[in-house]
Specification:
With 296 residues, this protein is of the alpha+beta class. The chain contains five helices and 15 strands. The protein has one domain: Alpha-Beta Complex (paralog of FGE (formylglycine-generating enzyme)), CATH 3.90.1580.10. The strands form six sheets. A four-stranded mixed sheet has the order 13-12-11-14. Strands 2-5-15 form a three-stranded antiparallel sheet, with no helix packed on it. Strands 1-8 form a two-stranded antiparallel sheet.
């Protein structure tokens, strides 16, 4: 049964306790017959950190096979094509409600009529070039199957997010504001009281509005959380395989990565490269989306 408490705690960080280029080959972008994707060469990288929360440790080497990944978060327009072709209804639509962060209430609220077309409630309208949100892990898997793709593993996501940098705190280096300016969509100000919008957005931003990382990927950090294929486990890194880890065999929640526009310096801070999130597979929220990958 879908629990609002699980939704509220899992996504705003209450359960998210809260460089030097590598020698890896450069990523290449090529036509593949799918929407914009980037070819990643695979290889060995250091996943996790010893300077964060316990469940982000230990930092450990992981070796991945080459794969393709969507250049940006899946957009509303892309998801609409899937719905038009299949008649698919998301879990939020079936339930008739979903979770929305209210800036007025400074808290999460249960909103009737919130879904991917109306991410902030029935009076809102999703913009075609924004990342699609209010999609559950189950919804994302169905889209991926239709598109001939799959969700990334947590290891694939962090490898892609780091963009070839080694041991850096963020996808762009060690400074949160390189050159004194935000380079991703996160919450500037004091969460949840006031968002200055210093990065140009107070809420979701259209995709590709911030500089790409070293692999040419957009919005791997911030904007919206992104679903990964793995089950969640706090101690998984302590015994995960070194090659192509797929996550635990079972669990009750799925991993999310990348942080969102609700992550701030005083709360959550999961715009860090090693930041991890998790929630139940039927969760949908207005800062939770996904992107897909494809095996080579």
């Amino acid at each position: 049964m879908r629990s609002l408490c699980l939704i509220l705690f899992a996504l705003i960080g209450l359960t998210v306790r809260a460089g030097t280029p590598s020698t890896q080959p450069a990523a290449t972008s090529q036509p593949t017959g799918f929407e914009d994707m980037v070819s990643l060469p695979g290889g060995t990288f250091q996943m996790g950190t010893n300077d964060g929360y316990p469940y982000e440790a230990p930092a450990h080497d992981v070796t991945l096979k080459p794969f393709w990944i969507d250049k940006h978060e899946l957009t509303v327009a892309q998801f609409a094509k899937f719905v038009k072709a299949t008649g698919y209804k998301t879990e939020a639509e079936k339930w008739g409600w979903s979770g929305v962060f209210s800036k007025d209430a400074h808290d999460w609220t249960k909103v009737d009529g919130a879904d991917w077309r109306h991410p902030d409630g029935p009076k809102s309208e999703a913009k075609p070039d924004e990342p699609v949100v209010q999609v559950s892990w189950n919804d994302a898997v169905e889209y991926a199957k239709w598109a001939g793709k799959r969700l990334p593993t947590e290891a694939e996501f962090e490898y892609a997010l780091r963009g070839g940098l080694v041991g850096k705190r963020y996808a762009w280096g060690d400074e949160l504001r390189p050159g004194g300016k935000p380079v991703a969509n996160w919450w500037q100000g004091t969460f949840p009281d006031f968002d200055t919008g210093e990065d140009g957005y107070s809420g979701r931003a259209p995709v590709c509005k911030f500089p790409p990382n070293g692999f040419g990927l957009y919005d791997m950090t911030g904007n919206v959380w992104e679903w990964c294929s793995d089950w969640w486990s706090e101690d998984y890194y302590e015994h995960s395989p070194k090659e192509n880890p797929q996550g635990p065999e079972k669990g009750t929640e799925r991993v999310q990565r990348g942080g969102s526009w609700l992550c701030s310096e005083n709360y959550c801070s999961n715009y860090r490269a090693a930041g991890r999130g998790h929630s139940t597979p039927d969760t949908g929220l207005n800062h939770l989306g996904f992107r897909c990958v494809k095996d080579k």
